[in-house]
Design a protein that fits this description.
alpha/beta; Aspartate Aminotransferase, domain 1; Aspartate Aminotransferase, domain 2; 2 domains; four-stranded antiparallel sheet; binds pyridoxal-5'-phosphate
């Protein structure tokens, strides 16, 4: 190979992230006018009207740099979470915070990061790109979390342990008591990262989130995002509550201005719009129950979910998931096949509006029964 093209060996090993298909791609490919996208767990209600107004009002400021470290948003989040502001880290999506955690905490060539399999792809991407060993523990048959095996996989060089609860793509959710017990049993150096991207949608978020317990925990990080319940996926805004000593270091190592000025204003507006937030939770919880019922009626095996999506397996004797996925696409419905998560016989569907859910169920019925 030409010496000019020599790069870090880690960089050579990656395949590009394969996102869900976009509405525009499907529209062109199949010549369809109406497309329903239930593939990326986005907010079924779209953008809050209060956020939209904030974006319009502040658009003229887009030529300015944001305030470095977005202190106003961090203070607002500290208030929202009930924690000291030193413990709040915000980023360009929680993706950036995951990346920061690995870069700040894990020593390349020496440390390891531990997670379940399957898991959110960012944990592996960031670890491997940092030259950090990535270890995975398979989920149990019923998709519950085998915490004993997770602990057995850790050693004195484990820097971070990631869990997602509610889990993506399975929907499985641990209780906060189980997570606290896990945190207490990890090796001394290890930090437990609890990715709560979907915890808003749980029936009893207080029983599920680690937030009420963070004050007593020195080795736990909680991640939240504005991409799901707050409807800001396209603006890229995530937040973490981390131990105080770690927060200072993470903010110091962060690329300046990674949270853009409109994301700051949108985040503040989103936190203030409790009506939109509560309506989102209502629509998702109601839609989740209706979708689960409808999928079961079609003969699908539906995994219980506390998130804004459902994972399911098609009935015995139906077309393969890949084929059913293509059949749905050709009829203008985009869901997420789970082959890339190592589950070729399952699919994930995001909870949409009532109308979207009904169209999805009707279309799946056509695909399955002709
Ligand atoms: C959607 C999702 C996120 C959110 O990521 P952002 O970068 O904040 O958009 C985080 N973790 C998991 C597991 C997710 O599914």
């Amino acid at each position: 190979m030409n010496a000019l093209y020599e790069v870090r060996p880690e960089a050579r090993e990656f395949d590009a992230y394969v996102p869900g298909l976009s509405i525009e791609e499907i529209r062109q490919k199949y010549g369809l006018a109406n497309i329903i996208k239930l593939a990326s767990n986005e907010n079924p209600l779209g953008v809050s009207p209060i956020v939209e107004k904030a974006l319009r009002d502040h658009a003229p400021e887009a030529f300015r740099y944001p305030r470095c470290g977005n202190p106003e948003l961090n203070a607002r989040l500290a208030d929202h979470f009930g924690v000291p502001v030193e413990r709040v880290v915000t980023g360009n999506g929680s993706d950036e915070i995951i990346d920061l955690l690995v870069r700040v905490k894990a020593r390349p060539g020496q440390d390891n990061v531990v997670a379940f399999k399957p898991c959110f792809s960012m944990y592996e991407l960031c670890s491997r790109m940092c030259g950090v060993e990535f270890r995975q523990v398979p989920l149990a048959e019923d998709f519950s979390f085998p915490f004993d095996e997770l602990i057995d996989t850790c050693d004195e060089n484990t820097a971070l342990v990631f869990i997602t609860s509610p889990d993506n793509p399975t929907g499985y959710t641990a209780t906060s008591a189980e997570i606290l017990d896990l945190a207490a049993r990890l090796p001394e150096r290890a930090i437990l990262v609890v990715d709560e991207a979907y915890v808003d949608f749980a029936d009893e978020p207080e029983q599920r989130s680690v937030l009420p317990h963070l004050a007593e925990l020195e080795n736990v990080v909680m991640l939240r995002t504005f991409s799901k319940a707050y409807g800001l996926a396209g603006l890229r805004l995530g937040a973490g509550v981390v131990p105080g000593w770690l927060g200072e270091m993470m903010r110091a190592c962060q690329i300046p201005f990674s949270v853009n000025i409109l994301a700051v204003y949108a985040g503040l507006a989103a936190l203030s719009d409790r009506v939109f937030y509560q309506e989102t939770l209502r629509v998702v919880r109601e839609g989740r129950a209706n979708l689960a019922k409808g999928l079961a009626a079609l003969g699908c095996e539906v995994s219980p979910s506390q998130a804004n999506f459902l994972m399911f397996r098609l009935p015995e004797g139906s077309p393969e998931a890949r084929q059913a996925f293509e059949g749905l696409l050709a009829r203008g419905v985009i869901v997420r096949p789970l082959a890339s998560y190592g589950m070729p016989d399952r699919m994930r569907v995001s909870v949409g509006t009532r109308r979207e859910n009904d169209i999805f169920l009707k279309t799946l019925g056509e695909v399955l029964h002709g």
